[in-house]
Write a structure and sequence with these properties.
heterodimer; A: alpha+beta; 6-stranded mixed beta barrel; two-stranded antiparallel sheet; 52% helix; elongated; B: alpha/beta; 6-stranded mixed sheet; 4-stranded antiparallel sheet; 7 helices; 10 strands; 35% helix; 27% strand
Chain lengths: 397, 223
């Protein structure tokens, strides 16, 4: 304990040097933390986003992932009805995503349209006003961006225009709808102008070749533990569909994002090496400067253990303070970088690249603590092995 | 009666630039309790090497050293460290106090290492600082003290665990004449109070205070 107390107080001798080292360790720690958050955060964020409304399975047209193509599921209502009769299924709902237009004065603005089954929707969070009811074919929900674009608020009327017919270049379907509420669409990118209606209305606006089509069907199982078995059974029963549990999707996502994790691993390792070199160099310089003092301490009977404790304590104290600053810096830079990355078009705004989690912070802190101790080993060995007599002789000359 | 220090036929050889330097060539010495021995001689005569061997800071090439009857060559490194901590006191030319500690904390340091309880070591540190005339400077950092004051703190530190012998290597070497005189007075008082002293010095005044002067030349005692 004495060695530890001396070690920590010794850091005050060269305040500028200690300060600069702390800055270096803080930067390296921040980088490590960000890389750890990045490597696990993508998966976590993706998984959280998919599970945000509790639906553990996605059914899509064969060979596609959700929103990968414009392919759609035929006879969606009968598939949903069959699923709702399944005792292992708690909730099932279909959704159609399409592009359409909204009328603003005498012009049309492009919108993203979602057809939902309000009793089983997993796409949005109501923010103001009221939700659609299953039979509400006169109502519409708007995202904040869509409300701005259409200059409409709750209670106002808006006109949605379905896909333009490429042959005649005329809008074939148009509906005047009352704005029921504003919502936050969970999978929208930042500023995406999205509108939602009940599924049958959106199917008509989308002018699908067959009216009963959906982009995706979402299924909530009665128990999380039943998901793998239910997914396997649905794959057999619905061979025309791709059945993915959230775990399956996360696994596919992980495979796609492998390079991100590799990059994070390489940069994280480099930051650890920088930390080890910084602390090791600083302590080695410090020990070499203080060899005379260390030899004197050994001469008056201070044990090697105390000397080793002192040097390791200096390394650990540097690491703890530097890593503490680094965690604050890392969280700040992660937030900043996250804001930049999630503003890229096509990425859901609710998605995060850097997800701070208690266990992530704990792992980073533990790794840094071990790093600090490891970095102090060589200087500690140097200090403990300093030959007393030779060092005192060298000091005296 | 077992002498605090007993050296027999000490030899110490160093390899240097491919050759062997004979720092000590068969030195025998006995220091009895209450003695005040000054070891003098020109640079390179082996006096500091002798002091280091007597204090267990280095091992002889041949010969033996006993401290209070314990042969040092029978002790492990940890045992030797413990013996230096509890039975010997060291004073060096460069004081090497820990600059981040106060004078009192520097004096407490060997007692803390020896496991003395906090209250007891605090009280003894204050007594020792008062003894060396620095009671009023107890809470000053080492860096706030003058050279003479630092050496007096180093002497208090050396006395902390009530050593059987005080070994000093050029204790006035870094001090001016006036402060050197203060240390000389302090050593006289220490010996008068029963402390056994072995002092390596170039300082004639300090040597003149000793009860016995050992002259060294070319690694041997000439008296």
């Amino acid at each position: 304990m004495r060695g530890i107390a001396w070690g920590i107080r010794s850091l005050r001798r060269q305040r500028l040097r200690t300060g600069l080292s702390l800055v270096g360790i803080a930067v390296a720690s921040a980088m490590l933390l960000d890389m750890v958050m990045l490597s696990g955060g993508l998966d976590k964020s993706f998984s959280d986003l998919l599970l945000s409304r509790g639906f553990q399975m996605r059914l899509t047209p064969k060979g596609t992932l959700p929103f990968d193509t414009e392919a759609s599921i035929a006879n969606a209502s009968s598939v949903v009805a069959a699923l709702r009769r399944d005792p292992a299924v708690a909730v099932a709902g279909a959704m159609l995503a399409t592009s359409l237009y909204g009328r603003r004065s005498d012009s049309l603005v492009t919108l993203v349209g979602y057809g939902v089954q309000p009793e089983a929707q997993s796409l949005y969070q109501l923010e103001a006003g009221r939700d659609l009811t299953p039979g509400d074919t006169a109502g519409v929900l708007l995202s904040e961006a869509a409300a701005r674009l259409l200059r409409a608020g709750i209670g106002d009327s808006v006109t949605l225009v379905g896909r333009l017919d490429p042959q005649v270049v005329t809008a074939s379907v148009g509906r005047r709808l009352a704005v029921r509420g504003t919502v936050r669409w969970l999978y929208d990118y930042r500023g995406q102008p999205s509108v939602g209606t009940v599924l049958p209305l959106m199917q008509r606006l989308a002018r699908q070749p067959s009216i009963d089509r959906a982009s995706i069907i979402l299924v909530k199982a009665r128990a999380d533990s039943a998901v793998p078995a239910l997914a396997a059974r649905l794959r057999q029963e619905l061979p025309q569909l791709e059945v993915n549990s959230v775990a399956d999707l996360v696994a596919q996502f992980r495979a796609r994002m492998l390079y991100f994790r590799q990059l994070a691993f390489i940069l994280g390792t480099m930051s650890l090496i920088v930390t080890v070199l910084l602390i090791g160099t600083l302590l080695t310089i410090t020990v070499n400067e203080r060899l005379g003092e260390i030899a004197t301490l050994r001469a008056i009977g201070v044990s090697r253990v105390t000397i080793v404790q002192q040097v390791l304590a200096e390394g650990t104290a540097l690491t703890v303070v530097g890593a503490g600053l680094g965690i604050l810096l890392g969280l700040g830079t992660a937030r900043y970088l996250d804001a930049i990355l999630t503003s890229f078009p096509g990425l859901p705004a609710a998605f995060s690249f850097f997800v701070p989690r208690p266990n992530t912070l704990s792992v980073a802190a533990l790794v840094l603590l071990i790093t600090g101790c490891v970095a102090g080993l060589y200087p500690a060995w140097l200090a403990a092995r300093a030959p007393i007599a030779a060092t005192l002789r060298a000091e005296a000359t | 009666m077992t002498p605090p220090l007993l050296a027999r036929e000490l030899r110490k050889d160093y390899p240097m630039n491919g050759e062997t330097v004979h720092a000590l060539r068969g030195v025998s010495l006995r220091v009895d309790a209450g003695d005040y021995v000054a070891i003098v001689g020109p640079s390179g005569s082996g006096k500091s090497t002798l002091l280091q061997l007597l204090g267990g800071l280095d091992t002889p090439s041949s010969g033996s050293v006993e401290v209070l009857g314990t042969p040092l060559d029978t002790l492990s490194d940890a045992e030797l460290t413990r013996l230096r901590l509890t039975r010997l006191g060291f004073i060096f030319q460069r004081f090497h106090l820990l600059p981040v500690l106060t004078a009192r904390e520097n004096v407490e340091l060997p007692m803390a290492e020896a496991g003395v309880a906090r209250a007891e070591r605090r009280s003894r540190a204050r007594e020792l600082l008062a003894y060396v005339g620095l009671g009023h400077r107890a809470d000053h950092r080492a860096t706030q003290l003058s050279g003479g004051e630092m050496q007096r703190v180093a002497i208090a530190r050396a006395l902390a665990n009530r050593p059987a012998v005080l070994l000093a290597d050029e204790p006035t070497g870094e001090l001016d004449a006036a402060t050197g005189h203060e240390i000389l007075e302090l050593f006289r008082r220490l010996n008068g109070d029963g402390t056994t002293l072995a002092v390596v010095t170039h300082d004639d005044r300090l040597a003149a205070e000793a009860g016995r002067i050992i002259h060294m030349l070319d690694g041997t005692i000439r008296d």
